Amino acid sequence: MVELSKVQTEVVVADAPFVIVSAGAGTGKTTTLIHRAGRLVSMAREENRRVLAVTFTVAAAREMRTRLVAMGCGNKEMLEVRTLHSLAYAICSSAGSFPKGSQWLLSQAEQEEWIEGILPSLGEVSLPPGHRDDEEALSAALCRLFQRWSENGLSSEELEASHRGVFSQEIISAYGRFLAWKRSERRADFPDLITMAANLIDSGIASRRLVDWAHVLVDEAQDLNQGQVEFLCALLKGADSLTLVGDDDQCLYGFRGSRANFLENAVRVFPEMAEKGFVTFHLEESRRCPDEVLVPAVKLINYNRRERPKCLSSSKLGRPPEAWRLDDERDEARFVRWRISSLIDQGVMPRDIAVLARTGSSLRSLEAELVRARIPHVLRKGTGLMESLHVKDVLAWLTVAMHPDATEAFLRIHDRPARGIGRMTALRVVDYADRHGLTVREALEKVMPGNRAALDFADVILSLEDAVRDANDASEALEQVLKLSSYGSWSGIQDLEDFQNDMEMLRSIAESSTDIDDFMISVSCGRDHDRVLKDGEVVLSTIHAAKGLEWDHVFILGAHAQALPHATSCHEFEIARNNWPVALLKGEAWLTIGRGGMEEERRLFHVALTRAKQSVVVSFPSSTWFRGRHIRLEPSPFLCEAGIEVRPVTMEMRQAMGIAGLSSGQSLRNKRRSRSNFTSTAINQPSLF
After folding, report:
1. Mean pLDDT over residues 552-573, rounded?
2. Could you give the CA distance from residue 54 to residue 60 in angstroms, rounded to a whole number?
């Protein structure tokens, strides 16, 4: 068992009703939170009350449950561990807000398709310079804007009253139609869940078991937005204590409404809890990073505005971060591949290596190099688990087994695998079931009497109903569904590797789920970076998706002035043409389609540096092609702020990489000839990436 430091112990035993823990990277915040949860469970047991611990990801909730069980505190009767969204969904579901199963969830594609259909009615609307200005890009941007407003509980009437001069009447009206469309369809997306659950609590409709907590603990509290704060306030009405754990310097979600310096201002965000008494702790001893990595990381982040200077130290020894300048993206990819190969040759396991980048597109050249070198790797995309067709299919089968009248789920799985029942026949079955109040299985037998395919399908559904009802846990129910539906052995699966990865992920979530409902909620609210990573693969990831993780050796790719800071995120208070909000408006953080600005970009680089347990290698290309022009790229200003020296790759290194001559020979002469076409980057240029 990990020995707690003096400050960690003080956090665990703190008696204040409101405990705020500012925990730097690698300082043991999760360990501290778990031990405090264990103590609060003991206190709540004496009063016959319960403790709630909330996280932001399925993986974090899974880890917390596992560690609490190991401590003997995993009794669900006393302690509930959930993601914010899964708790919100459970509250909404118990109140009958959604259809049965997972079919209530609106995908990003469905929402963008609806918005694209109303674009002609909006008049002339365009995106700021540097963005694609077609219907697809505009629909995606409007969808993100509408989701942001919805997640923070804003109505079209509130927007019209406060933002008439910022957004056109047509856009505000379209937002109102967007909300009405989702209500009429009894569908929702993740941003809606939080606001709907808060409203149900305030109206007294929510299940008492889901809202009555003695103590509430929040992990990664710095990522809370306004809607989530209001949801927590509703949950706290009868609570004795609130514990917030997080790191303001890892607040990376300004585009979702998170506020900078949230923990510094927590007493103003939760004034009622603060009035009862509060205490603040700072965890500043990192057990992850060596001092050689922490010194530049801390130096960098202290450029941000803050009330208290950042302090992080470590007793570990390591190597100072390196920074290398390469010719172009392909050159950079070869360099990183060479360094990864060298580490593996030295006995480093691939799973202990990660390559991080500001955007996923920056990883493409490296991925091609790793494929050529036959280095196993995995790309963490950060997309929703429910975007996977395989996951949707399995949950639809499980929904049919649990809810025999779930007609929408039946329409999805009637031919997956094929059973001799076409789309038109399936629609007839659903219509008959709805009109006569029958289950899908009963309707099959009525619509197609004596039909062998229909009878066989009805038998499959009956077997599934019995198997899932009798299953001891979510894992057994999942295996029965895969077996009895024949989906687990379906020859129609086109990408077998994707399917196997999806099933591995589902099994992992099922193992850590308390029951089938919890499994369904966790999958619906999860993302692909909640997957269990394989031991033998180098991880390629965006910096956002890497938060909370750690590796021995970290490479930071594409660290030039156009990507870090990202060009479209540098202006914190700008309104572009046509009154389109590029970034956060001062004093209106909850209302706009925000960018975190230079300070959030600096936090991103701080997070990237502090993922490393031993070494960090930063690289960037010195040039690239953009719209037919050769663009010169300068190093990220964050390298200078962190005191990390940029070095050119030597000829000896190029020879070892197997690309000698590319820089000093023809490539260099070509660059000199095309110097007239070269353009230096500037922060205010349109984004290249």
Report:
1. 81
2. 9
Of 168, 160, 161, whose CA–CA distance to 125 is shortest? 168
Query: What Å distances lie between residue 98 and 91, 187, 406, 601, CA to CA?
Result: 11, 7, 12, 38
Q: Using the predicted structure, report yes or no on whether residue 585 has a pLDDT greater than 80.
A: no
**Which DSSP letter does residue 238 get?**
G
Structure tokens at 637: 């200003």
Q: What string of DSSP letters covers 201-235? A: HHTT-S-HHHH--SEEEESSGGG--HHHHHHHHHH
The pairs formed by 60-68 with CB atoms below 8 angstroms and a separation of 24 or more are 60/30, 60/219, 60/220, 60/548, 61/86, 61/512, 61/522, 62/508, 62/509, 62/512, 62/530, 63/30, 64/30, 64/33, 64/34, 64/37, 64/219, 65/512, 66/512, 67/30, 67/34, 68/34, 68/37, 68/38
The pTM score is: 0.80
Q: Residue 24 has which token pair?
A: 């730097």
Asked if the peptide bond before residue 635 counts as cis, ω within 30 degrees of 0, the response is no
Reduce the DSSP state of residue 347 to 3 states and report it: coil
Please list, in sequence order, all residues whose beta carbon lies within 8 angstroms of the beta carbon of residue 198, skipping any fewer than 6 positions away. 153, 227, 230, 231, 233, 234
Query: In the predicted model, is pLDDT for residue 253 greater than 90?
Result: no
**What's the CA dihedral at 532, 538, 542, 547 to 10 degrees?**
50
Lowest mean pLDDT among 198-207, 296-305, 543-552, 578-587: 578-587
Amino acid at 490: W
Mean pLDDT over the full length of the chain? 82
Written in H, E and C, the secondary structure of 117-143 is: HHHHHHCCCCCCCCCCCCHHHHHHHHH
The residue with greater pLDDT, 405 or 649, is 649
Task: Retrieve residue 520's tokens.
Answer: 């369904």
pLDDT digits (tens, 9 = 90+) for 195-250: 889 989 998 888 888 889 999 999 999 999 888 999 999 999 989 999 999 999 99
Residue 565, preceding peptide bond in cis (omega within 30° of 0):
yes
Q: Which residue, among 572, 569, 524, has the nearest Cα to 543 in the 3D structure? A: 569
Per mean pLDDT, which range of 207-211, 447-451, 529-533 is the poorest?
Answer: 529-533
The residue type found at 164 is R
Closest CA to 142 of 133, 130, 152: 133
Backbone angles phi, psi at 474, to 5 degrees: -65, -35
CB 382 within 8 A of CB 529: yes
Q: Which amino acid is at 318?
A: G
CA distance 636 to 630: 19
Q: What are 133's two structure tokens?
A: 């200005």
Q: Is the alpha carbon torsion for 492, 495, 498, 500 positive or negative?
A: positive
3 state SS of 306: coil
Structure tokens at 649: 């790759």
Place of tokens 């060009």: 567
| pLDDT, tens only, 47-99 | 778 899 999 888 888 888 888 888 877 666 788 898 888 888 888 878 877 65
Length of the chain: 689
For 395, phi then psi, to 5°, come to -70, -30
**What are residue 182's phi and psi, to 5 degrees?**
-65, -40
| Beta strand extents in 234-341 (DSSP E only) | 241-246, 278-283, 322-326
* Listed ranges 101-105, 188-192, 288-292, 596-600; the one with the highest mean pLDDT: 288-292
∠ CA 319-324-330, rounded to 5°? 130
